[in-house]
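[job 0412] stage=fold_complex status=start
inputs:
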Amino acid sequence: MMTDAYAIGIDLGGTQVRAGLVDWSGKLIARESMLTDRMGGPQAVVEQIGLLVDKIIVTKPECMIAGIGVSAPGPLDAVTGHILEIATLKGWENTPIVEMLEARLGQNVAIENDGLAAALGEWRYGAGKGLTHFVYVTVSTGIGGGVVADGRLLRGRRGMACHVGHMSIDPNGPRCGCGNPGCWEAIASGTALARRAQVAMMGDPASTLHSGPQPIDAGAIFAAARHGDGTALKLVNEEARWLGIGLVNLLHRYSPEKIVLGGGLSQGLDLMRAGIEAEIAAHAMVPFRTVSVVSAGLGGDSGIIGAASLFQFSDRI
Amino acid sequence: MMTDAYAIGIDLGGTQVRAGLVDWSGKLIARESMLTDRMGGPQAVVEQIGLLVDKIIVTKPECMIAGIGVSAPGPLDAVTGHILEIATLKGWENTPIVEMLEARLGQNVAIENDGLAAALGEWRYGAGKGLTHFVYVTVSTGIGGGVVADGRLLRGRRGMACHVGHMSIDPNGPRCGCGNPGCWEAIASGTALARRAQVAMMGDPASTLHSGPQPIDAGAIFAAARHGDGTALKLVNEEARWLGIGLVNLLHRYSPEKIVLGGGLSQGLDLMRAGIEAEIAAHAMVPFRTVSVVSAGLGGDSGIIGAASLFQFSDRI
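[job 0412] stage=fold_complex status=done
writing structure:
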């Protein structure tokens, strides 16, 4: 028996492909995942997505599916449905992913850059709900994000706006995966934090960071900082400063009512909040200083839920 | 006898206050200006604007005025009509400028940040005409700008979005007037270029820059470069690189179809184009590299015409 309509959201990442069945209230009611076939190219991953969707549909045969929204790394062309390239996966240049998925799935498919999809999810169902202007930033392996301004998701030409991680904030900074020197992503992502931690640990043989997982990751750095490890606290404060520098740029750029922070590093927002707020208080122009930074409301599911929501609202451009 | 409706645009700057009568095709058909009363505060400047408007109305009594749009330095709150502060003028904190001007002029008044107003002018009547996504950047004493994305001017909370000059691109760079270290404005504005020129001239006593106006300005640097002066050419190339670094950030941020460059430094775009394009080709992500940089179509009048256009279109938020 058919019930209310649902949509499926796919989160295609460099590590995992995840699929979720989302109801009209934005609730994730079934999920499936597998490790991304990094070497198989688009055809193999399309088949993976197909299997995940099949699994979900088999367990919920009573659900009518309005469509399948895909969140994927960019740059991608959301208008024509092509992935232009994926830095972390080989062989994806100019892939007509929407056409391929529609052929495999027999369903309507739409694609959105992962930062924008997660921003949509947070706006419609999470920490950005009810806001007219907000900036979503996800900090994990890289830095991505999306922006709602004047009550609409900012998409830009080919839906490629808001690559917020790829702004150079230091001309002498490390080269980013995108080729640009000193991108915010290259300096303030979880990857960059872990790299700084490895250097700092060499200078502090007594640090509890040595007893964490090796190579060290952001979660272990936050854990050590919570236990008062001096080197970890210094790393966290430095990270907060770099995040703050980029957030000031975003405040001046988009004038949001709120900044929503997602991704793995948002788990340490409590530790970094004072440092981030100090950076904003010191360097944002006065009328921008009152904007607060809050954690994502949907955790790691912002992307899946946002991608599904492409079929739950009619305001796509 | 009444004819078609017109609107008046005001461009309130740190040096001049300018007023223009603009017809429904965006043509400036009368103009007046005077030096800004920098010390008199808001009341004196409101009176200056009143005198300029009176002069225009007296010479064109047959014109029906739909309203008066004001372009002013920010940050300002375009929604409530308050100027929050003006870095170059004293005593403007939280000035209810719209209310004051409506009382003085007996006309409907609206206010817009100067970068946004000029972007509106270029979008509706200039080099951005017909585009759905474009970025306008004005480089002169400072750097400002505005963005059209998805067919609408990006305004943000309180209409304060798109302070494009105030993004830090170098944490060790010179402190900006806004207080932020290494803002694009502090590094790549005409003021910053002139400062670098003064240093470079000390190292090159034979440069023709010494025979230009002192203190040197961007126009004289471009002129010397056109005559093959080596130091001037080096300065121009360095300026192009800094402009390019900021423009790459804006490409990734807004995904425009075109970048429109205005302000005094756009007079040297022919000299800087190769350097700017080289920076974009080297550091923008591939799908962003084809975006061209063109000169403003309305020259120094983008702001007046854009401000007037606030009363010529009904799409204000």
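[job 0412] summary: The mean pLDDT of chain A is 94.
[job 0412] exit 0
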